[in-house]
Write the structure tokens for this entry.
Amino acid sequence: DVDKQFILTVPSYERVDDHITYNFRLEDTIKNRVYLRSFRFKDLQGTTGDSTKEGIMVVMQYDMPDFPKTHFWKKTNKDPKLIEERRLQLELFFNTIVNDPLIRGHK
């Protein structure tokens, strides 16, 4: 999509001790820069609490995808299928945010 200044992907994940880190890649297509950063899922949860999501939804012109849920009854970190599912959901969620023109300041 030529209108996207940012392309955000979560191309991979890594097992670090007893937890999983998700590797984020943010490409700024205008400035021709790439930013790489890894996050634990629990660290991302604090940035997207319900009140934050509701606040963002007021600004956005459409509904955001849901932030991936925590599975209290499942051991996500030990199940490659659940890890991959969460990786895809994180990519969709954050890509939606970084490409919203109102959030980026372009109307």
Summary: Residues 48-60 have pLDDT under 50 and may be disordered.
